Structures are given as structure tokens and as C-alpha cells.
């Protein structure tokens, strides 16, 4: 287990979280494999975009 | 397949729904195995299990039942959703939690997210078991 996930960086953990949650949401809400693939991609990039966006918004307060 | 036959095949019962929900809680994805939804079962097991294992590998902590405040109680509720992964967390996590560092704190959140994600799959398993048209 540590071999697989032990070396996860904070960014890596965020990407992994976004991917796993996107896939699960796609299987919960869509019927066909094409719909699921589209939804996974859309949700995955939305997760990343929002997380990086919020990160930059908080950046000035860390100074 | 005729519409009647499809309806017949989809027919479930509350008992079947509860059995699928309990099985899905104990082992993520197992409720869908009982309902012969193989691909969903595999995906849910890998996703919930992967998230829980990642959380534990990052030395995240789990919340106990003797929580003092509301946030700890919510954390306990979220962790409990991971079912078997919660009860065997101390076995899977040999090094023990280390929430003093940011990585351990992230691990705690990942594990809680795994529990919450599994609650969604449990609800779907229950609905499918009852004969619902969950997607």
C-alpha cells in the first residue's frame, strides 16, 4: 500500500482524489460508457480547475 | 427482451435492497456484486478502496466513536461509511497516523471522502436492490 500511495505529493493526492471521485460520480449518474467517459473528463478537469483557482485566490493571504 | 420481461427482471424487494446496502457498506462494491452489476462493483471497490488506502498511506487519522465535538462526530460518521476499511484501518496502516503534518491531514480528508463516496454507492445499491431504476 505504501509502495502505491506512500510517495504521493499534495498535488498528486489532489489529482488522484479528482480522478477517483469523477469516475465514481460518472458511474453513479450515467448509463453508457461514452457518457461516463465524457462526464469523467469534464468533472476531473472541473475539480482541478476549481482547486487551482481557489489556491490562487488564497495565495495573497499567505503572504 | 419484452418490456414485461425487463420489468420482471428489475423487480426487487426492500429486503434485497437492505441486503445490498449492508453488503456494500461492509465491503465497498459488494452490494453491486450481489445485484450482478459487475463493472460498477469493480469500479466502486477500486475507487473507494483506493481513496481509503491512499488516505491511510498518507498517515491520515480516523475518528473514533467517542468524539467530543460536532466536527469529530461528523468525521466519525464519514469514516464509518468506508465500512471494512474503517474497521481494518489499524491493520492497513502499520506506521500509525501522523496528523501533525499536512500530508497526514490530507490523508484524514481522503479517508473521510472515501466513506462519503461509499454512502452514495450504498444508496444506489439499495435503490437497485428494491428494483429502482438507478443509473
Word description of this protein:
The complex is a heterodimer of chains A (63) and B (135). Helix content of chain A is 79%, strand content 0%. Chain A is mostly helical and 63 residues long. The relative contact order of chain A is 0.12. Chain B contains eight helices and no strands. Chain B has helices spanning 3-10, 14-26, 30-34, 38-57, 70-80, 84-87, 89-92, 102-129. The model of chain B has no long low-confidence stretch (mean pLDDT 88). The interface between A and B is medium-sized, with 19 and 27 residues.
Short description:
The complex is a heterodimer of chains A (63) and B (135). With 63 residues, chain A is mostly helical.
Helix/strand layout:
The complex is a heterodimer of chains A (63) and B (135).
Chain A: H1 2-5, H2 10-29, H3 33-58
Chain B: H1 3-10, H2 14-26, H3 30-34, H4 38-57, H5 70-80, H6 84-87, H7 89-92, H8 102-129
Helix pairs in contact in B: 2-8, 4-8, 5-8
**Uncertain residue segments of chain B:** none
C-alpha Rg of chain B (nearest Å)? 17 Å
- What's the tally of helices of chain A? 3
Structural class of chain A: mainly alpha
Overall shape of chain A: it is flat
Helix/strand/pairing category of chain B: mainly alpha
Helix content of chain B: 55-70%
The outline of chain B comes out as: elongated
- The average pLDDT score of chain A comes to 91
**Average pLDDT over all residues of chain B:** 88
Portion in strands of chain B: under 5%
The SSE string of chain B, one letter per element, is HHHHHHHH
Biggest sheet descriptor of chain B = none
The strand count of chain A comes to 0
Amino acid at each position: 500500500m505504501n509502495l502505491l500511495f506512500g510517495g504521493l505529493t499534495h498535488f498528486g493526492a489532489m489529482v488522484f482524489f479528482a480522478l477517483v471521485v469523477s469516475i465514481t460520480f460518472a458511474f453513479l449518474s450515467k448509463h453508457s460508457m461514452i457518457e461516463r467517459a465524457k462526464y469523467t473528463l469534464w468533472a476531473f478537469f472541473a475539480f482541478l480547475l476549481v482547486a487551482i483557482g481557489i489556491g490562487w485566490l488564497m495565495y495573497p493571504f499567505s503572504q | 427482451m419484452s418490456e414485461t420481461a425487463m420489468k420482471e427482471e428489475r423487480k426487487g424487494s426492500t429486503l434485497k435492497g437492505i441486503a445490498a446496502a449492508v453488503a456494500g457498506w461492509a465491503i465497498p462494491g459488494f452490494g453491486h456484486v450481489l445485484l450482478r452489476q459487475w463493472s460498477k462493483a469493480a469500479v466502486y471497490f477500486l475507487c473507494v478502496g483506493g481513496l481509503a488506502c491512499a488516505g491511510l498511506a498518507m498517515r491520515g487519522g480516523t475518528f473514533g466513536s467517542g468524539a467530543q465535538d460536532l466536527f469529530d462526530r461528523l468525521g466519525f460518521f464519514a469514516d464509518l461509511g468506508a465500512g471494512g476499511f474503517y474497521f481494518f484501518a489499524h491493520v492497513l496502516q502499520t506506521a500509525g497516523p501522523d496528523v501533525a503534518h499536512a500530508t497526514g491531514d490530507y490523508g484524514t480528508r481522503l479517508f473521510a471522502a472515501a466513506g462519503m463516496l461509499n454512502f452514495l454507492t450504498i444508496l444506489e445499491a439499495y435503490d437497485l436492490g428494491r428494483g429502482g431504476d438507478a443509473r
